[in-house]
Give the backbone structure.
Amino acid sequence: MKLQTKLIFILIGIFFTYSLLFSGFIYYSISNYAFTDFYKRLEIRAATTAKIQLEPHNEVSSVREIRQEYLEKLPNQREFVIKLNEEASESNIPKDVPMSFVSEIISNDAASYSNKNIYYSGIKYRNSSNEDYIVIISAENYFNTHHIAYLRNLLLTSLAFALLLIVMVSFIFSQTLVQPVNKIISAVQEISSQNLHLRLPIPQHEDSLGRLVTTFNDMLNRLETSFETQKNFISNASHELNTPLTSIIGEADLALSRDRKPEEYRESLNTMLKEAEKLDKKTKALLFLAETGFDGKSQKFNKIRVDQLVLDVTSTVEKINPKAKISIDFSLLPESPEMLKIKGNDQLLHLALSNVILNGCKYSDNNVVQVAVGASDKSVIVIIKDSGIGIPESDLAYIFDPYFRASNAKSFEGYGIGLPLARNIVKMHNGELIVASTLNEGTTVRINLPLGNYTL
């Protein structure tokens, strides 16, 4: 069943059920009130009749005038006055009045009774001479036969019109609700892997559909980034891996093209060995990068003090690059050492920080690289700042793509693996790596690592 049809049926069911219950309540309330009111009318007429017929005439003239003036005669109205004495029996009781009704009047001083549409009301009355009588008034309930029937027909007609109105309103309402959804479906159907740049139009109102469209657009942003990263990765990886392979194959073909001296073979083998070592490094870096992806393999995590980690990384970088100049700033360290402890993998974090600091040294021609360590209430912060060549603004969006190298970094040796690898390692630790750079002024890398009071 279509969503629109389902909505129509649901709305019709809800509103029609409500209308039916409301009409039933009105009908029951008015009918019940009508019966009570009619019995009250009969009881008043019974009391008036008793006064007029059982009291001296000079005492009831005003009562007679009131009845004539204000109490109109009801349809088929009849009056029965029965004296209660030792001789009272069923012989002087009207045939259509049950004896049980008379007994109830005697017991309770008043009673009501109905037979089809004829209603009876009786009272027990003692006159001024201390004689007991039963006064019964009967009449046809005109209100029930005419007014209640009219009310019933009116309610049924109203229900029919209400049903028609509900159907129309439900259709319009469902159209209003479903139309934006249909537009979203049509827009989504136009989006494929070939045009991931398309986005859904955001509604003007901030409602559930607006949040749905925003969420879907955010998902498209992530998908587009993922697709572009994958395409860029495949393009760069194929180039980086094919270059040493081509050199090895070409050198081997050249060496085997004719007989050569041992020295020449040795030289060719050395060339192929160097290219094979490059290929080995690139392949290992590629595999390690894959292993440290956001959903990479599980690693063992322990408690680590970040200030000690920075000192160890500095020592390692200086061994790798003796010309490196690193200035460490511990002036922002918190008073409590616990504010510097995180849960993480020492080797992976060591590798991530080493890559970032080595990049700072390399791209600043071994000028001083400043490393600062601080802490907030929720995380430990490491900032690495250099005064090197910087990154062009147009390249900043791609710096985390594997094998991507900025346009002004071609003269520096490297594979474009270090920064993506560092970012993946930081993400494995639920952290964040942020890069800010200005061309020819330098680059600042900020690493936020959450404190160790969480479960990995």
